[in-house]
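Students often ask why inverse folding is considered easier than folding. One informal answer: many sequences map to the same fold, so there is more than one right answer. In these notes we will look at a single instance of the problem. The structure comes first.
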């Protein structure tokens, strides 16, 4: 269909009005606009129509009319959330150079979940955040933003580490082609994420966290409070993706863990999930771990005696620097040994992407209900290199309909 010049001008006017009216009606405080509709009074054409379901979820309509063009507009205004909330936050360890990849991730989280609930966001950095970083991230977050500097003693070598030995180990791992084998800062990061991030003073106000990294994306609406879900269902750790670890990064991690178990048998939960991380009743590690770039978890667990002793035991062994122990296997082994297996949860309905893997529910009803935009053919959950099938099997959980069609 061809558009004449008058229609083109009217459409352009509609777009300009849309932007102007959005800007005009933005008030102060935690109020945002979900979407807009504009109606052509001449032919009734609707542009950018919004769904009535928004209004049922804490939104209201703001109507107006542009006298010059004759277009009506409707802004769907989201009201501040007034229901009960958990003491919870998002937490991101990032550098200033991560800004634009992080903005996309924040926008995804806000659009799909947090604009409804307005939870806070804690940003941590081993250097001072720039004004640009603070200005742009805070403009996207519907809750309060907090910016913290990692203490120097948490981003450096402990005094019990032989730094010459650590340098030799990095050199050897580089020669062996181990991913990030050469990186000193990557090791600081893994140690910090393993046992120190929750000790930052900014985290003292919270009982729960949701970890978000730059360049991630969420594909489905999340219309329930995930933190409240965790509390109400007695869950303490949740994941979306699980995978096998690179064995070359953790050659002695399991032996060190076995030593811990022998020294602290009272700390191992009687209903643990050892069979997730070991195929031979604890003789060896099968390398399964939860991909910790996404995790929702209880901070009380990390602050507790069992995890504190486990981290300290690993730290003194030196494997964060003499090898390249990652926070993902550390968290996963700890969760599997120190928690009741019923406290660990897989969020199938939270579709998620962190390069290069996707989590996208293979259940059609779940995707339609949650307005998902992901392709289930890309889902990693039931692939051969995923450990999530094992999680379902050992816990006698029902898999989603049609999962077997996506085996790989």
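Output (designed amino acids):
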């Amino acid at each position: 269909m061809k558009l004449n010049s008058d229609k083109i001008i009217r459409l352009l006017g509609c777009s300009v009005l849309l932007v102007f009216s959005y800007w005009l009606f933005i008030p102060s405080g935690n109020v945002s606009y979900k979407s807009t509709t504009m109606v052509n009074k001449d032919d009734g054409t609707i542009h950018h129509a919004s769904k009535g379901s928004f209004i049922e979820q804490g939104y209201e309509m703001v109507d107006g009319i542009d006298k010059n063009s004759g277009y009506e507009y409707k802004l769907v205004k989201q009201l501040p959330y007034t229901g009960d909330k958990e003491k919870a936050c998002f937490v991101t360890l990032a550098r200033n150079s991560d800004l634009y990849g992080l903005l996309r991730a924040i926008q995804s989280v806000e659009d799909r979940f947090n604009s409804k609930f307005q939870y806070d966001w804690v940003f941590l950095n081993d250097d001072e955040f720039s004004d640009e970083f603070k200005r742009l991230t805070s403009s996207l977050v519907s809750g309060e933003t907090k910016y913290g500097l990692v203490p120097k003693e948490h981003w450096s070598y402990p005094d019990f580490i032989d730094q010459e030995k650590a340098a030799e180990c990095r050199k050897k791992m580089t020669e062996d082609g181990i991913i990030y084998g050469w990186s000193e800062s990557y090791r600081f990061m893994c140690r910090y994420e393993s046992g120190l991030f929750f000790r930052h003073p900014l985290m003292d106000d919270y009982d729960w966290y949701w970890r978000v990294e730059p360049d991630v994306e969420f594909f489905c609406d999340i219309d329930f409070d995930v933190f409240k879900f965790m509390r109400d269902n007695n869950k303490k750790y949740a994941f979306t993706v699980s995978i096998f670890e690179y064995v070359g990064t953790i050659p002695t991690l399991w032996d060190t863990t076995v030593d811990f178990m022998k020294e602290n048998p009272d700390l191992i939960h009687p209903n643990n999930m050892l069979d997730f991380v070991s195929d031979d009743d604890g003789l060896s590690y099968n390398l399964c771990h939860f991909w910790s770039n996404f995790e929702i978890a209880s901070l009380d667990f990390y602050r507790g005696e069992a995890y504190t002793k486990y981290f300290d035991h690993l730290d003194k062994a030196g494997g964060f620097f003499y090898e390249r122990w990652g926070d993902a296997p550390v968290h996963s082994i700890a969760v599997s040994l120190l928690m009741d297996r019923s406290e660990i949860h897989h969020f199938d309905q939270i579709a998620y992407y962190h390069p290069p893997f996707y989590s996208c529910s293979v259940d059609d009803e779940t995707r339609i209900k949650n307005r998902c935009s992901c392709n289930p053919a890309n889902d990693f959950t039931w692939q051969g290199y995923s450990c999530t099938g094992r999680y379902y099997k050992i816990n006698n959980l029902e898999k989603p309909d049609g999962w077997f069609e996506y085996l790989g």
